[in-house]
Amino acid sequence: MYFRRMADPVGPWTKDPILANFRFTNAYRASDRVSQYLIREIQYHPDRSSRPSEVFFRTILFKLFNRIDTWEELERCLGPLVWDRLDLNVVAKTLNRMMDRGTKLYSAAYIMPSPPLGHKRKHANHLALLARMMEDRLPDRICQAPTLQDIYELLLSYPGIGPFLAFQYAIDLNYAAFLTHAESDFVVAGPGAADGIAKCFTNTGGRRAEDVIHWVCDRQEEAFRSAGIKFQDLFGRRLQPIDCQNLFCEISKYARVAHPEIRGVTGRTRIKQLYRQAAEPPQTPVFPPRWGLRVPNERVPISTTKERIELFA
Questions:
Q1: Which has the closest alpha carbon to 148: 268, 240, 273?
Q2: Are 266 and 195 in contact (CB under 8 A)?
Q3: pLDDT per position as a tens digit, 154-173
Q4: Looking at the whole model, is its pTM more than 0.90?
């Protein structure tokens, strides 16, 4: 569906009513709309500082809210968001005014707990958390961290950041040019992935969810061949553990509607977010240059064999 949309922004891209009517992430996390905005506009934009401390600051400030509209409204009101020049109290007041107008600040993609840092409003506590990270010279410590897991553990040490968020932030930071860790090295399963795994396997032999994710990721080509699936990878990049983690989450969601009799481990029974087609067609995707992906500048072609079309019908 991702490649169909890149080739034809109008659609339709599937005959499956569940996929057509509800919101799902792409098979590859980095190709999702918010991840693409992060990479293109925040981490690799030519007019923004490439200093690790500034890239870290912009990345975490954006991801705390995980909402493009919030970032763009802050920049409209305050200009470029630069740590060396920005007063976070002014940012908090700007967000207060946005809330008072009824503007939504946070994305519904993640549950964002408020760190207990003494402020009445959630966003003020999150700004205080970001200030603490910068004062602790966390960007420098992350640059020196030898593995993706070490970055995860640094992030996990801060209040209000649990295992799932710490892993997501580690992946987001690792898109930036100042980090070069392989995504294949480390994964943390969120509650949705654990639920999806429970819906896929009757018995995992007591293995951790992370071990199942790595097992599936390692065997993806073999599984596609055995199922007769001609899987179109991401311009030469195979699925990574973070992508498989997300895919188990999406299986969990899909099964709530398609197979409601399969309860899983969370007990969720519906998909909350409906799909709404964006007004603008998708831009040519941008990925971390070190991945070396062969992304064409024109509309992305898709496989059009009868077998492939029928597979997703």
A1: 240
A2: yes
A3: 999 999 999 999 999 999 99
A4: yes
